[in-house]
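Batch manifest, entry 17 of 40.
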Amino acid sequence: MKSIFAAATIALITLASCTPKATPVTEAPKSVTSTAEQMAQGKTIFETACKRCHDLPEPTKFTSVQWVGIMNSMAPKAKLTDEQHQWVYDYVVSVKK
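Output type: structure tokens
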């Protein structure tokens, strides 16, 4: 009886560990909500605040979804406000290839 219970437990654990895991949901990119003036400020912030720590990436190098992750990780380090974060994001995704 104990061996049947142990076998059933092992089978359940094996099945549970082999099932596909849920993929994390990436926040959808924010739509462009900034004015032209605010995006100009976003460009200035991008060129000054980001440049303090590293070379600037070409805005067209990343997709809008990739920029969400980049901005979410870098904005706190640059001490950007939520508004500034939005302006910089809107600037980088507005740059055309």
